[in-house]
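Hey, quick one: can you model this chain's 3D structure?
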Amino acid sequence: MVDYLELGAGITPDELRRVMIQYPSTAAVRQHKMRNGNLGVIQVSMVGVKSSSDSSQVRYQVLIDFRNFPSTTPKAFIRSPHSSEISHCNIHKSDRYPLAPNIDLCAVCIGRYADDYVSLPEARVMRLGCYLNQIQYILSNPNPNSRAR
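Sure thing. Here's the predicted structure for all 149 residues.
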């Protein structure tokens, strides 16, 4: 068995292919290909709801920063819809981040999940799947007790 850090930071092309089974629209952000050949940032299309009081479906374009994966919790950002169109209470208002300094992005609040992430088994595929499931869960189930906006 390969040590979970042995493959280096980022997600491998094989891990990206696994993600694409559940999220076929997934794409690597080429500008963030890492020196080790792994991918630092991906874009995923996920369907969620508009808000805790409006269950209308919204397609979110999510950028996920895996540059420090698997040792630290990845970070997710909404690229679209635009911040002014977002009512979801667990998505922050737009800001600029080093990930894409020329694009307004809205960070996704993951609540206490970062604490849970570090206690997951050190299996890359498990950590990757759990994180994506968490983002999908947040987008589909707004938590008004953990407001970001």
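One thing worth noting: The longest strand covers residues 54-65.
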